[in-house]
Amino acid sequence: METTASETSIASVILEVADPESAHRFYAAFGVDAFVRLRASEAPSNGFRGFTLALTVAGPATVDHFVGAAVEAGATVLKPAAKSLWGYGGVVQAPDGTIWKIATSAKKDTGPATRRIDDVVLLLGVEDVKASKEFYVGRGLTVARSFGGKYAEFASGGSGAVKLALYKRRGLAKDLGVPSDGTGSHRIVVGGTAGAFTDPDGFAWETDA
Questions:
Q1: What DSSP designation does 169 have?
Q2: Phi, psi at residue 170, to the nearest 5°?
């Protein structure tokens, strides 16, 4: 039987945090609590954890809204929202250490800010994009877009689902404005439909109930 993208996909993103109650308050205020689950953990983690959660929104005003909401709730700005070759975006770090990127391909607003999120992407920083892509294809995920050994994105399980993408770890850290070095736990577990496994870069998946 052929495995399809709808059968193998991300069902949940579980962030391991020291204080789930405090983290829940932050993510509710930030406006992304529908996309993450929280689990208590004291696992040591130092430096870059090797991933980011990226939000794609409609325009610069909405980027500013989410960055502002995150900062007001206690986040630290790693990269102030600004124009780039690709559009407009900024990077913040949650109090629990998770890095979030908020961006749009639009350089001008066509309407007022909203709380709508068009896409959520779990972007993993990996040592070898081609090898990790082949690993995930072997687990039943379907490649949606791929740019050689630089980037790969997989099809999601449907509307509102979190997408998975791969990027070189060093390049991802540079894009986020942080050093690429890091040790200890990634502090993230992916709940999926492909069973429990750990990928070549140490990112753990578990069967989502």
A1: H
A2: -65, -40
The neighbouring-strand residues paired with 16 are: 39
> 2 lies in a domain?
no
Q: 109-161, pLDDT tens digit by residue? A: 999 999 999 999 999 999 999 999 999 999 999 999 999 899 999 998 766 78
Whether 110 is in a domain gets the answer yes
pLDDT tens digits, residue range 23-38?
A: 999 999 999 999 999 9
Distance separating the N- and C-terminal Cα atoms of the chain:
22
Please tell me what DSSP assigns to residue 4: -
**Count of domains forming the chain:** 1
Which of 63, 16, 12, 72 minimizes the C-alpha distance to 44?
16
**Domain containing 46 — which CATH number?**
3.10.180.10
In a domain, 5, yes or no: no
Q: Which tokens hold the place of 69?
A: 């909401």
d(CA 97, CA 48): 9
The residue among 133, 171, 161 whose CA lies nearest residue 7 is 161
